[in-house]
Amino acid sequence: MRWTSEHRAFAVEAYFSNNHFYVAVQYAFRTHFGIKPRGPVRDRKSIVLWVENFRTTESVVKKSSGRQRTVTTPENVEAVRQSILRPPRRSARKHAVSLDISNHSMRRILHEHLNFHPYKMVVVQELSPCDFQNRITVCETLLENLPPDTPVFFSNEAHFHLSGYANKQNMRYWSGNNPRELHERPLHSDKVTVCCALSRVGVIGPYFFEEDNNAVTVNSQRYVDKIKNFFEPALEELHLGNVWFQQDGATAHTARASMTVLREKFPRWLISLRGDIPWAVYSPDLTPCDFLWGYLKAEVFKHRPTNVLQLKNVIRQEVAQNPVQTGTSENGCISA
User: Fold this and answer.
1) Contacts of 99 (CB under 8 A, 6+ apart)
2) pLDDT at residue number 128
3) For the residues of 101-122, what is the DSSP string, one character each?
4) Nearest Cα residue to 206 out of 95, 292, 118
5) Which residues contact 133 (CB under 8 A, 6 or more apart)?
6) 224 compared with 201, residue with greater pLDDT
7) For residue range 84-141, what is the model confidence (pLDDT) as tens digits?
8) What are the Cα distances from residue 139, in Å, to 107, 127, 148, 199, 278?
9) Could you tell me how far CA 55 lies from the centroid of its own chain?
10) Axis-axis angle for helices 308-320, 289-300 (nearest 10)
């Protein structure tokens, strides 16, 4: 509600006539202006502020804070540049207030004169100084110890949410009136948890962690089942000899049961936390799977699947279209 000079004048008059009792002022305010019992009225702090303003200025009219400069002069452009460079994470509105220029002029200077654009920050895992060196050490160790003719299977899991293709930032309705469209979505959309292993000879996967067609959390037992019942048969179909196997340091991967099975399957050929070649923590971007997931999600959600079954079929379809594919197993294993 916009509070006019008439509202302010009545509140000040009622304040003095009711012996500075602000509750009586609120009651008289509602009665005089026909406001419902639970309708909005000013609180005690605002009423006292109006009274103090009247005492100091002898007026109930709200004083302007001063005319803002609205001209995008060279001086203002340089002032905005310097202000933005000092704390770049500060909002444009706060910069405008600190420089005493209008918000409109601030944004015009940022876009038209400085060619600045607002970018969203991405929150990533914080790395300590030793983590950078560990990542370099891992890369150097891999280059020195991996035979060029031996395949390395890099493995990882990813979540594909059914609503993942929706981008509300680009959802707009052009209309003369607000259509009041409401798109209801569940708080936690259906998803599938997918695992793939990628090497220069092809992709093994996708493997879905699920029970009764519902996605489940990856624990050590389910991870071991995947290795024994899916990954090992897929390797046998490829007729490969010794291969290296890489995994990150997730708890399900490095649990005692998981490591026992992996050491038996890949003796002296395991790249992992506490493996034959230690894998650096906080390094998902060092594996080709990081690029695989980005590619797959971009392609999968072009199909706009509407249920989990369609989502799984589209994932299988996109993995099967890998250019190095020469055959597909019953479980969706792609070989080369």
Assistant:
1) 76, 79, 80, 83, 106
2) 81
3) B-HHHHHHIIIIIS--------
4) 292
5) none
6) 224
7) 887 666 788 888 888 888 888 888 888 888 888 777 666 666 778 888 888 899 889 8
8) 45, 17, 15, 16, 10
9) 52
10) 120
